[in-house]
Design goal:
It is found in: Cell membrane. By secondary structure, this protein is an alpha/beta fold. It is built from 9 helices and 12 strands. The mean pLDDT is 91.
C-alpha cells in the first residue's frame, strides 16, 4: 500500500512541530526518519497514525484520506508502535499479540480461527512463538520489542509506523529488530520508522528522510543524501563519511 503525506502542518499550542511536509512512500519500502531531538519526527508519525490532528494537509493511504476514515477503517490501513508502549500488568506474549486483532473484532465478528492463525503466524515471523506463555516483564529488551512488533503485525495493516523501535536496545538486539523490519518490508508491507542512529538508518532504509525544525531538509536513498554537510546541518557536528567495505553503506565518523 502506498502512503502519501501532502503539505502536512501539525502544531501544539504556541509551537509548530511539523511544517509543510510532503512525503511519498511506495509499497514494500523502508523509510527512516532522522533528525535531532524535537525536530518533529514523532509528531509526524502521530499525525499519520491519527493520534494528532493536523492543522492542514492530508495523509493518504492507498489514495484514501485517513483523517476522513472511521478509526477502525484507518486501523486496517495503518498501525503504529509508539516509543514507549505500555502493556497490561502480567500479560503474556500471546495475550499481547492478541491485542493486535482488536480492529478486526466487532459486535458480529468475535474471535475466530482466522484470528488465532494470524496471531501464531505473527509470533512465528518475529521469533517469539517459543515465548508464547512467558510474561512480557520476564523477557529481555530484544524479546519484548519483537513481541510488540508481532502485535503490530497481527493487526495486518499494510503500513507500519515504528517510533524508535531500537531505543534502549544493545547492538545485538538492534540488529535483530532491524533485520525483522527489513523482512517485513520485503514481504510487501510499507514501514516508516523513526531512528536516532544515522548508521542504522543508512544501512536498512530504502529512503532516508532528514528533518530539522519541523521541515524535511533532505530525502532520498541514503548513499545519495548522507554527507558531511547533512550531518552538520542536522546535529551541528563535523564528521567524515566513509563507505562500509561490504556494501558501500555510508558510515558516519564524527570528529573529536
Amino acid at each position: 500500500m502506498t502512503l502519501a503525506v501532502e503539505g502536512l502542518r501539525v502544531s501544539y499550542p504556541g509551537h509548530v512541530a511539523v511544517d509543510g511536509v510532503d512525503l511519498q512512500v511506495g509499497a514494500g519500502q523502508v523509510v527512516a526518519v532522522v533528525g535531532p531531538n524535537g525536530c518533529g519526527k514523532s509528531t509526524l508519525l502521530r499525525s499519520v497514525a491519527r493520534l494528532h490532528r493536523p492543522d492542514s494537509g492530508r495523509v493518504l493511504a492507498a489514495g484514501a484520506d485517513v483523517w476522513r476514515l472511521r478509526p477502525r477503517q484507518a486501523a486496517h490501513r495503518i498501525a503504529l508502535l509508539p516509543q514507549s508502549p505500555l502493556a497490561p500488568e502480567a500479560v503474556t506474549v500471546t495475550g499481547l499479540v492478541r491485542y493486535g486483532r482488536h480492529p478486526h473484532q466487532g459486535l458480529f465478528r468475535q474471535w475466530s480461527r482466522e484470528d488465532e492463525r494470524v496471531v501464531r503466524e505473527s509470533m512465528a515471523a518475529t521469533g517469539v512463538l517459543g515465548l508464547a506463555d512467558r510474561r512480557l516483564d520476564q523477557l529481555s529488551g530484544g524479546q519484548r520489542q519483537r513481541a510488540w512488533v508481532a502485535m503490530v503485525l497481527a493487526q495486518e495493516s499494510p503500513v507500519l509506523l515504528l517510533d524508535e523501535p531500537t531505543s534502549a536496545l544493545d547492538l545485538g538486539h538492534q540488529v535483530e529488530v532491524l533485520n525483522l523490519v527489513r523482512t517485513v518490508a520485503d514481504a510487501g508491507r510499507t514501514v516508516v520508522m523513526v531512528l536516532h542512529d544515522l548508521l542504522s538508518a543508512a544501512r536498512y532504509a530504502d529512503l532516508l528522510v532528514a528533518m530539522r525544525d519541523g521541515r524535511i531538509v533532505a530525502a532520498g536513498p541514503p548513499r545519495e543524501v548522507v554527507n558531511a554537510g547533512l550531518v552538520r546541518e542536522l546535529y551541528d557536528v563535523e564528521a567524515d563519511i566513509l563507505e562500509a567495505p561490504s556494501d558501500g553503506t555510508p558510515v558516519v565518523v564524527t570528529a573529536r
